[in-house]
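Chapter summary example: a protein plus alpha-D-glucopyranose.
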Amino acid sequence: MKIWKKVLTGTVAMSMVAMMAACGDDEDTDATTDPADGDDTEQEDDGADDDDEAGDDDADEGDAAAGDQEEVTITYARGNDATGSTDVLIEAFEEAFPHITVEYRDMPSDTGQSHDQYVTEFSAGDATIDVFDADVIWPAEFAQAGYVLPLDRFIEEDGIDMDAYFPGTVESGHFDGRQWAMPKFTDAGLLYYRTDIVDEPPTTWDELLEMAEEYAGEEGTEFGYLMQANQYEGLVVNAIEFISAYGGQVLDEDQNVTVDSPETVAAIEKMKEIVDAESSPSNILNFDEPATHTAFLEGQAVFARNWPYMQSMTEDEDQSRVAGNVGFALLPAGDAGSAAGLGGWMTMINRYSENPEAAWEFVKFMTGPEGQKISAMEGGLAPTIAELYEDSDVQGVAQLFADEEFVRTLDNAVPRPITPIYPQISDIMQIELSRALAGDISAEEAASNMQTQMEAALSE
Ligand code: GLC
């Protein structure tokens, strides 16, 4: 089966490379050796410092040192896990570290809703949650707000090789010269298609629209293309993919707002065309990832945009009616090429945690090779450690993980702006894009409104 269509054109490829380079050469390498760690603001440093000294010796082999350890219980929170991989992770961790019990707290699957719950608890200094999974868009904000511990000292003392991770994933957890989050799994938008209906996936958005209209109805399908167009974070990622594919950018490297451009207008217009297409579900403006995978696995659509986790699901006969009939490809290209949005999750430690040392052990385990392998095998989640893509077990679990082009896509995916006021940027986009997709305002108005409001937010 032909898996990938190469459609990355020069412009976007170059702008992505530039973006990655801009990300990569920042202060990344300083993170592990940052002498500034010592002169952190007192509030940031205390937890990490004190506990590190005690935690140092048992850091490498939990079970060997576990005998005389005090029993501790930590609470770990993450967005709803439909895969069951979290239970397996916790079990494996508790086996290696018998003195640490992990209590698992389920959060909403919508990243925005989870975010708001964390902010409510952490801003009140609540210590209930010790460790939590953070969307790649949160670390800068949480770091600036003082909700989380810097991890540099832990990383340094345990000799964690940050170069083993994809640079973009490390960068998402880096802010103000420090590393606040460890990369757990990465995400990049993909096009899924039914191989029993189309031989070759579309390579441009125009082609996708044409094919969606032509093939919807075949092999029991009802819809052409499914995307995440509900008013939430998923819409922002979908839009950033379109904006990049048409050659635009939300913020430039210097944090100037550049969203009001003909490229953004072209991108929004294409999204609107898709929303309005006859082959699109009439409630596409309510679609998020779970709605997408549910419909696609039931065989309702010819094409869908989703994250890597859906690939292993499509192949699982217990939950998929389309097993054996699904291929994946780069998202279609606009005028400037194809672009995948960068997503993914990291882990962070509540700065008020009463057990930062045990919390770190769990973070280290989940985000290290052993934990990431469990997440890949049990949850179909894409590792952030490049070497794991050479592991034959990982390659065996999903075709995606054995595909070199996919791994390159992960490395080149387009990040969302890294700024402590990301929630405001996202809200502005969510509202204006939703209005444009519903037909309440034009694409031009949406682009111009976003520009004005983002400029105001950034200058506050
Ligand atoms: C996925 C991505 C995350 C993104 C979210 C949007 O969970 O990993 O980064 O914000 O989808 O719905």
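Key point: The CA atoms of residues 75 and 128 lie 7 Å apart.
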